Amino acid sequence: MDTFDVIVVGNGVLGLTLGVEFARGHPDVRVAVLGQSARQHGATPAAGAMLGAFGEVTAHLLASEHGRKKHGLAVQAQRLWPEWISSLEAHGDGSERIRTADDTVVLLNTVGHTALDDANFAAVLTALKDANAPHEEIEVSSVDWIDPDPNSRPLRALHIEGEGSVDSGALLRSLERAFLQAGGVMIAADVAEIRARAGRTQGVVTDAGDFLPAGQVVVAAGARSQRLIATVPGLEYRIPRVYDGVGVSALIDTWDGSGPDTVLRTSNRAFACGLHLVPRSGGSVYIGATNAVCLEPRGSASIEEMIFLFNCAIHQLHRGLNGSQVRKVQVGSRPASIDGFPLIGGTSVEGLWMLSGTYRDGLHLSPLIARHVVSLMSGGPGLSDLAEFAPEREPISAWSRGEILEDVVRHTMATGYEFPWRLPLEWPHLIESLLGGPFAELAERLSDAYTPPADLMTAMMFSEPEIQEELMRYYASVYLEWH
Known about the structure:
Radius of gyration: 22 Å
Number of domains: 3
Low-confidence stretches: none
Oligomer: single chain
Strand content: 15-25%
C-alpha cells in the first residue's frame, strides 16, 4: 500500500500549484496529486487563463467589503506571476511559452445593458486609478486587429499594461513537469471518499476502492469538491456548498493566421466574464466564454451556447472570424460557491484542507492561495487577507437582498441584449419592470437568512420545484448549524 504524507485531490492548476509549492519546500515529504488525465468537468482545460486582476472588476464587486477584499487578492496574485512563470519555464526545455499576452484592452461597446456595462467599465477604471496601476484610455481606432460589425462597435477602449494571459495547457504541462522534478507523485485516479476518524484525516478512497493513507489531504477538486466534503461527517452544513459554473469556449484557427497581441475583452456582463479573445500560438485564438451555474455537472456544449458565443465574437470583435476554422470546443466547470466567495484553508478536521470555490478566479489566484495553504499546512501564519475566506464558515452575506435582486435583473436583461433579442421597442422595459417580482418571491421562499448570488438565483428560477425545496432545506440546516 502506497503511503503519503500529503495527498492533493485534484490535478487542475490549483492542485498542481499547491503540489509544486509543497514538494519544493519540503523535499523530505512524500506528496501525491490525484486525478485522471482527462480532467473531466475541470475548469482549467477550458479556461482562457486571463490574469485579470482589474479586467474582472465590476461595480457590484466593489460595492461590498468582501468583494473589495477579493479584488485585493487578485491584485496581490498578479504581482506573483512573472516570477512564477520564470520558475516553471526554468525547468522546461524551452519549446513552449506559458505567457501568451502581456496586456489587455477592455472594450465598452454598443451591446448589452447600458447601466450594467457603463457601471462595470467605470469600475475597472476606478480600480486601476485607486491602485495607481499602469493604464491608458485609448482611441478605439488605435485598437489593433479588431473589425466589428458597426452595430456592435466599441465606444471606448482601455489599455491595461501588464495584465495579460497564459496558455492553460502549457501551464498544466509545466506544473506537472515541475511537480515530478520536485519529487512529487502523480496518480491517475479520482477520489470517491475522504476518510477521517476522531476528528483527524486518515486518507482517501479512490473510485476503484483503493485506500491511500495520508496525514494531510487537500481538496482541490474544483466543482467536484462538494461531493467529497459531503463524505466527511459533520462538514456538509459547515462549509458552503459548491456548484458547477459551466463555461463553453472555443479554440479558433483564424482565417488568415492573424490575431491580436493583447487580450481583447468586454467587462463582465450577462452572468459571465464578458466576451474575451485571447491570443494563442500558431495562428489560433481562444474565444470565451459562456457561464451558467448548473445544479448538475455537464460535459458538453449546447448548440445554443455555441451560436451565442460565435455570434458575439463575430459581431463584437472581428467579422473575419466568420470564415475561420473551429479547432476545438471546450467545456469546463468552475467551482462556484453558494455565497460567491472562495473556500481556502483548513477545516475543523485535523489535516483536512480545501482549495475551491474560486469560480472564475482560480487560475489567476493559484500562486497566491497555494502559498497561503502551504504556509498553514507547515505551521505558518498564511495570509491574513485570506482568513475570512476559510472554508468552514457561515455563508457570507456580502450584499443586501435588494442589491442582489437588482443585479440579477440587470444581468438577465444583458443576456437578452447580447444574444441579441429582437423585440418590440417597449417590451424590454416592460420585461425589466416585471422581472424583479418573481425573483424576490423566489428569494423569500428559499430563505429568510441567505440570498444566493445572482447567477445561482437564475439557475434556481428555472429549476424544478423539488430542487428549490431541497435548497430551502439546505439553507434551513445551515442556519441551524450556525445559530
